[in-house]
Every structure is written in C-alpha cells, then in structure tokens.
Sequence to fold (353 residues):
Amino acid sequence: MKIAILPGDGIGPEIMAEALKVLDALRRDGLKVEMESALVGGAAYDAYGHPLPAATLKLAEEADAVLFGAVGSPRHDALPREHRPEKAILGLRKECDFFANLRPATVFPELADASTLRAEVVAGLDLMIIRELTGDIYFGEPRGVSGEKGARIGINTMHYTEAQIRRIMHVGFRTARQRGKRLCSIDKMNVLEAMQLWRDIAIEIAPEYPDVELSHMLVDNAAMQLIRNPKQFDVMVAGNMFGDILSDEASMLTGSIGMLPSASLDTNGKGLYEPIHGSAPDIAGKDIANPLAQILSLGMMLRYTFNLVEWADRVDGAVKRTLAQGLRTADIAKAGEPVCSTSAMGAAVLRNL
Ligand code: NAD
Fold:
C-alpha cells in the first residue's frame, strides 16, 4: 500500500506533521504502508511554476491513496486562475476520477457545546454525507445566459446518467454497510424527472444490499430534518448540488471546522483524504492550528481505502480519548479554558494511540 503525502500550504504542513507521527507509530506497530511526499498548491507553484506539477500528479496517480493537507495563500491570490493553488485539488479530482465525496459530521460529546444547536440535539452525532461530484446542474448542458438586456434567460440543466447514479449509490450502500446499515437517498422526485431516475435507481440497487435499510427523503425536508433531529441519520447520499448544500449544513452542526475530515473516492476505493478546512493563513506558522481533522483524515483512509477497520478505530479512539482528557486547541476551547498547541495535541493523540 502506497500513500502520497501532499501537505500543501499554510497550516497544511503543520497539521500533516502531526498526522505523520501517528502514521509512523502505526508503522512501528506493523502497518505495512509506504509513503512519499510531494509539493502541491502554492508551495509547488513557488518551486516549479505550477500548483500541480507533473511529478506530484504522477505520485498521486500511482499511489493507492492521497493524504492531502490544504492549499491556498493570499500571496497566490493574484495569480491567473489556472495557476492558483486551489486548482491542484480540482486537477487531482479530475485526473484521478474522484467522483464520490464523503463528509462525516461527528460531534464528540465533549464538544457538543461548540454547536449553535442545543447540546442534546447534536451530542454524539455521527452522520456521513455522500455527495456525487461529477454530474448534475454544475456540468449539464445547455447552460449559459442569452438574450437582450431586459429579456435575458439564464439556463442550467440538471443532468444525470444512469451510470453516474449507479456508481454513487453503490458507494452509499457500501458505506452504510460499514456503519449503521441505514442509507437515506436524497432527491426532489416530486418535481424533477432527473431525480425520479435517481430514486428509481436507488430502489433497483437496494436488493443487492439486503443488510442495508434504504429510505428516501425530499431535499427540502432533509434540510429541515438535519436541524430538527440530525441523529436520525446514518448515511445520506445526494447529487452534486443537494450534497454540496447539505454537507455544509451538516458540518456546521458540529461547530468546529478544525475537527472534520473528508474523502473523495474513485470506483475502486482509491481516495484523496483531507480536512474540510482550508490553509488558514491567519494562523499559519503559530503552532496553534487544530491537527485533529488531518489525523481523522488518516483514520478515514485506513477505513475506506484500505478496509483496515481496527487500525482506523485505533486512530479515532485515540482522538476521542484525547478530547475526553480535556485537551483543546484554541478553535475548540470554551472561553477561559486552557488551550494547547498543535504539537501538544498531536503528542497527546500519539500517547493515546
Ligand atoms: P479556512 O478554512 O482556511 O479558514 C477559515 C477559518 O477557520 C479561519 O479563521 C481559520 O483560522 C480557521 N481554521 C481553519 N482550519 C483550522 C484549524 N485546523 N484549526 C484552527 N482553526 C482553523 O478558509 P478561508 O480562510 O476561507 O481560506 C483560506 C485559504 O484556504 C484560501 O486560500 C482558500 O482558497 C483555501 N481553501 C483551501 C481548501 C482546500 O485546500 N481544500 C478549502 C477551503 C479553502
């Protein structure tokens, strides 16, 4: 098993260093993985004149999984769009055909106070949202704005092929199988034909997964239920646009951007694993960033690409114990609570491993 390590910019290298300490400890315990690092984003642009140099792309293509930090910096914001650091992520997604985005929303009981919702509504939340990344209204044709001023028409087209729906549904069912065995498919079949096809295919595939309970929910209701009672869900699967909106909504249930990992997968389970947050230039270089989203991204990699459930449970368990012991970086500390550094948080996770 080979992992490509792409730390990126800003806090990326700082939080990646902590995740790599965890990975090193697992390797000492017998986990058989090779790893190789490369520059990506602004750091790669500075060294090679491109945010995703050919050597970095080749490393990612040849690896079984990619552990990604974050990219972007104010210094690179004035570059032409194709040279911006953020282009690296889009390039990796496209070249490696990562079509399934997995975003867990987990609320550790100790951090339930960080949510804007009442603690009892979110404490213990453990939800996974799966978003399709390659189809839908973001890519469908025809698109564009036409006509004279005063009579202009804006058009975008919701477009899904059967093959696109099938492959994301299979990811949904397989993920549910590894968790609480409940899959809720999100659509808008009451008004959109493309979403009727979405629902029909979900129903067609369901018999292949008799151990998973399939349900359906209209997206407007799902947006409401996520606020009303988010703990009713195990895995939700949605198209590109509905998944985009619902996954951001769900991440805010947790209240802390520094805690959430994510994965983007291809058909064979190869994946790119990264925190949902960006490179946080405002706190870079200060040893105060929260490394837990990066460490939990490593856990997701072990679980979803390598199917090493026990090793993944060890990583997640070490994070849980660290929080239970009261360690808090500034972003998750309550007013007046003592805060720890990035490296102290990483060291505590390592001890708890
Ligand atoms: P951001 O997620 O980097 O930061 C938003 C806020 O959250 C900041 O106040 C930051 O300090 C805080 N924060 C983020 N991660 C944290 C952590 N681990 N610990 C503690 N606090 C944390 O979003 P932004 O400020 O809008 O963007 C900064 C740069 O990151 C931009 O260049 C943007 O394009 C880029 N970006 C990259 C990715 C990615 O690499 N996938 C995603 C989003 C944004």
Notes: Residues 11, 15, 70-73, 86, 89, 257-258, 274, 277-283, 289-290, 293, 331 surround nicotinamide-adenine-dinucleotide (CB under 6 Å). The chain has twelve helices and twelve strands.
